[in-house]
Predict the 3D structure of the following.
Amino acid sequence: MLAPDQTRPAMRPYLAATQNFASGKNTPRQFLEESLALFEQWEPRIGAFVCTNLSAARAAAERSTERWRAGKPLSPIDGMPVGIKDIIETVDMPTEMGSPLFAGWHAQKDAASVRALRDAGAVIIGKTVTTEFAASHPRGTRNPWNTAHTPGGSSSGSAASVAVGIVSAALGTQVISSTVRPASYCGCVGFKPSVNAINREGSHDYQSQSCTGILGASLEDVWQVAHEIVARVGGDAGTPGLRGPDRLPAAKKPQCLAVLETPGWQSAATEGAKRSLNDCVARLKSAGVDICTRRNNSNVEALELDLVNATELSHQCNGWENRWFYRAMRDRDAGKLSRIFLERSEKYENLTLDQHRADLKERTRIRAVHADLADACDACITLAAPSAAPEGLGSTGNPEFGVPSSLLGVPSLSLPLFEDGGMPLGLQVIGFFDRDADACAISSWLMQAR
Amino acid sequence: MLAPDQTRPAMRPYLAATQNFASGKNTPRQFLEESLALFEQWEPRIGAFVCTNLSAARAAAERSTERWRAGKPLSPIDGMPVGIKDIIETVDMPTEMGSPLFAGWHAQKDAASVRALRDAGAVIIGKTVTTEFAASHPRGTRNPWNTAHTPGGSSSGSAASVAVGIVSAALGTQVISSTVRPASYCGCVGFKPSVNAINREGSHDYQSQSCTGILGASLEDVWQVAHEIVARVGGDAGTPGLRGPDRLPAAKKPQCLAVLETPGWQSAATEGAKRSLNDCVARLKSAGVDICTRRNNSNVEALELDLVNATELSHQCNGWENRWFYRAMRDRDAGKLSRIFLERSEKYENLTLDQHRADLKERTRIRAVHADLADACDACITLAAPSAAPEGLGSTGNPEFGVPSSLLGVPSLSLPLFEDGGMPLGLQVIGFFDRDADACAISSWLMQAR
C-alpha cells in the first residue's frame, strides 16, 4: 500500500529530456542525480536491484555531460540511466541469475548488449532483480503501484525500476511472458522484439524462443535503446538483427487490426480487463480502423485454435532446452533451488530429442499460420496480461498473454493504456516477424490516439 | 624431434576396446590407467593440457567399470577418456580460453556438451589447450610427431592429446579451420558437423559459422561422441541437431565425388600434398568412383570461383561478430592480448551492421551454390591442410583448407590417410548441410578403401 509519504510512481522518459542538454539547462549528471534520489526513495520499498555501481554511474554521467556540452553525444541515449536484468553479464558487477547457486559469480565481461549500451554512452546503474534463472520463482521485488502486489516477472526489477523513474529503460528478457507481463503490471512500455533481433551473447537465456526485451519510460526510449544496441552488436550471431529507422518510426494508423482473445480470455481475464480491451476496440472502430476477429475472419480463427496449446508447447520447447541445465543445477545443490524449479525439472526430465524435433516442427507450422495473417491485418492486439498485478509476492502472475508472441517469435509491445482496479494494465500489440518497425509505428499511433 | 626413448604417437580407439568390458578382460579403469601413463609420458613434451582433474577421472572410470560389469553402460562411450577444449565450460575446472585475462576463471557450470558427455559416462581428464580465444595466437602445445612443429589450432591440445592416446576423443571448435587443421597435422580423425548441429551453450565460440567439433582416434569414436552429446542436449537451441543412426553409419561407396582445389591449391599446397590427393583421386577412379572437378563440371567451377574470397568473407563475418568482444578485451588490458589479436581487432573495428548484413547475404548465396552440387556428387574431397604441420610454434599453420566447410556451414571430416615428409596429412571430406551421416558413411568407405 502507498504510505502517506509516498508519491505515485512516475516514469522519466529520457529522449524528451535530452533537448535541454546542449544548452546546459539540464545535464545527464543532473538527470542521474534525480535517478539516484528516486533510488534512495523507492529502492527500500520495492527491492528492484540486486546490486549497483553508483560511482561508475556518476563517472559515466560526467563523461556524458561533457559530450553533450561539446555537441558530440555518442548516441541519442548518451547519458540515459539504465538497469540490466541480472541474467545478463556485466564486467563490473556480479551476475547472480536470481539463484544462490551463483551468489557473487562474476562473468569478467560484459554481455554484447551491455557493451553496446556503454559504447552508446548509457549510464548503467545496476543489476535488476530477476526471478530464479529468469523462470518462475520470484525474488522479492514489489510493485511500486502497490507494494503488496507482484511486479510480474521474470524481468521484475527492470519493470519496477523503470516505473518509478530510477532508470529510463532497463534490459529484460522474454521466453514466455517476462517482458510484456512486468511492463503491463508496472505500467511501463515493454518491447519484446522479433526473436534473435538483439544479440544475446552473454545473456543467460539460451532458449530458442527467448529474446532480449526492453522496458522503458516511453516508446521513443525503448525503440532507441534497442536500435543503439543492434547498431553496435547486431542480433544473435548470423541473423540480420532488428531492422528499422534511426529514430522511433513515425506513428502510423493501421487499416485493420486483428483482436486476439487467446486462451487467456476465457480462463483468466478479469471483467475489468475485458472491458478495457472492448472499449479500446470500440474506439478504434469509431476512428475508422477495421477490426477482424475469430468470428469474422477464418485466418484469425485458425490462429486462435492453434494458440490453445501454445503455453504447453512453449513450456515443452523450453523444457527440452533447459533440461540438462536444470539437472546440472540439481546436482550442484537441490537445496538451493525453488520448489517450482524442481517440479519443472522433473516434468521435462524424460523429453527426448525426437519429441523436441516434433515440437519445433509444430511451432514452425503455427508461425506460418500467423504469418498468413499479414494479408488480412497490420497487427494483432490483445491484453498484455489478464488483469492488473495480483496481490502477493509468491507468484509473478499469470503469463498466458505473453505466450503467443514468444511462441511465434514475433515482436510485441505492452503499452500502458489501460487500468484495472486502479492499477496499470497494458494493451498488447503483436506484430509480424522482422517487421518490428511496423509494430512500433502502430503502437505509436495507438499511444497518441488513446 | 623424437628422442630415442620416445615411441611414435599412437591413438587408442575406444569403441573397439569396449568389447572386452562386459567380460572384465579389460575395464574402463584399466583403459584410463593406460591413458594416465601416456599422459605422464607425453604431456611434458607436448603440453596438451591446461589443467586436469585426475581424481575425478579415476572416480568416474570406477563407476563406469561397475556399470559395464553390470551390463548397464550409460552409452557406448561410457568410460571413454575425453578432453575438453578450454574454450568450453566445466563445472570442476577453470575455463581460461587461452588468455591470461581469464586465468583461473570459473564458469561454475558445465557447458551443454560437457554435461552430455558426463551423462553418457565419459571420463573427463582435463581441459585441452586452445589458442587465445580460439583464434590464432598459439599457446605452446607441440606436435607429437615432431615437437618442433605446430599441432595446428585452435584445438591444439585436443588434437595432440588424441594423437598420443591420452584421450580417445576431445571436444574442439571450428570457425575457420580449428578442427580439421589440427586433426590433419596430428593424424587424428576430425569431424566438424553441420553448423548448429551440436549444442554450443557454454562454449565461448559464438560466431555464426562456429561449430563444436570432435577430434578422435577413429571414425566410430567421433561419430559416437557427437551422437551421444546430441541425443542428450540437442543442437544449438531451436535447431534439430545432428541427424543420423545410433552407431557410425555403414560404409557407403560414393558414385561420384567432386574434387575441390580451393584457392589453397595454387597458393599454399606442397607438391607432396598435391601428389597425395592426386594419387588418391586416381585410386578412386580405378575403384569406379566418378570424379568431377572444375574442369568438367560447371557447378563445381561455380563453387570454386565463389570460394576465392571465402577466407576474407569468413573473417569479415567473424570480425563483425567478435568486434565488440575484442574491443572489450582491449579495454580490460591490451597488454595481455597477443599482437595478432590486436591487429585483427583493429582491422574489423569499423565494420558496420549494413556491411555485415551484406556479408551474411553473400554467404547465404554461396551456400546455395554449394547445395546445388548435391545433384552432381555425393560429397566433395580436398586436402585438410596444404601440407603437413609446418615447423615452428609461433603460428598454427595455414587455415585455408578449413574455410570452405566453415563458410558453407556443412559437415567436414579430416581422415588421416596421407602423409607429407613423414608427418601426417588429412584427406578432407566435405558433405552437405544436415546430411552429416552421409558424409560419415562415405568417410567410412574411404578409410576402408585406403
Chain B touches chain A through 39 residues (CB under 8 Å). The first strand of chain B starts at residue 49 and ends at 52. The radius of gyration of chain B is 20 Å.
